[in-house]
Amino acid sequence: MPIASSGRLPVCTSAGCAAKFFAPASHLSVELINLKLVRGQVADSGTTMTKKSYPLSKVYGLLEPGPVLLLTTFHDGVANVMTMSWQTMIEFEPPLIGCVISNRNHSFEMLKASKQCVINIPTAEIAEKVVGCGNTSGAKINKFEQFGLTQKPASLVTAPLIDECFASLECRVVDTGLVAKYGMFVIEVVKAWLDPAVKNPRTIHHQGHGNFMLAGERIKLKSAMK
Ligand SMILES: Cc1cc2nc3c(=O)[nH]c(=O)nc-3n(C[C@H](O)[C@H](O)[C@H](O)COP(=O)(O)O)c2cc1C
Questions:
Q1: What is the rounded distance in angstroms from the CA atom of residue 209 to the CA atom of residue 136?
Q2: Ligand 1: which of 78, 85, 104, 185 to mutate, most ligand atoms within 8 Å of CB?
Q3: Domain that holds residue 44
Q4: Which residue's CA is the closest to the ligand 1 atom numbered 6?
Q5: Is residue 20 part of a domain?
Q6: 38 and 148: one domain?
Q7: pLDDT 10s digits, 168-200
Q8: 131: Cβ below 6 Å to ligand 1?
Q9: Which of 39, 103, 109, 124 is 20 to 30 A from 24, alpha carbon to alpha carbon?
Q10: Half-sphere exposure (CA, 13 Å, Cβ side) for 44?
Q11: pTM assigned to the model
Q12: What CA–CA distance (Å, rounded) separates 52 from 120?
């Protein structure tokens, strides 16, 4: 509603705020202004949507925050892996990521103690292993053995890279200010690895309650976003 009525996206005025990149660019504003508000429905090129009330408990599935990841940790001589999908980018460079991790997970204590982790990005080919790591606890089993995931040493952190993932990001915890209230760890990527041979990786996206969407078709549009 505010976007359609004002034609502007929210602008952060504070210096150094990553949100400044979301400020309106001239060619984008034109498209926003062309949206018409019709009795609660947004009309764009003749397309209308008839919205109905939706349960609040299902909202998170609409806003899936990015690919499902495998977060590895290492503490007291033992490595663990956990499935994670509640993460968000906070800054471009150095890349900062906010990760919500429940204190009921074994990984929570491991990350809190070691202050290091690796974020591994899996694809559809190992989707069942990924969900398996999200349904079991490293406090009880060795998930690398159980699900056939291969550990490789990282260069700057003690947590392992997962060989079956096309990208792995070595991270350090840089802010725990929101951990007590929200379980949100702010981590900084200190080293990134990617297999360039993997073109158009089919990443896995969680929509809640066992529903997943796979990345597929890609389009390129003129965008002011970095
Ligand atoms: C698709 C999927 C996404 C998940 N995302 C998160 C998440 O973002 N944060 C979290 O705390 N747990 C998440 N979980 C649950 C943990 O992966 C799960 O509790 C796991 O058993 C924790 O393992 P651990 O006890 O070895 O740390 C997710 C599970 C699945 C299947």
A1: 16
A2: 85
A3: 2-52
A4: 84
A5: yes
A6: no
A7: 999 999 999 999 999 999 999 999 999 999 999
A8: yes
A9: 39
A10: 9
A11: 0.84
A12: 37
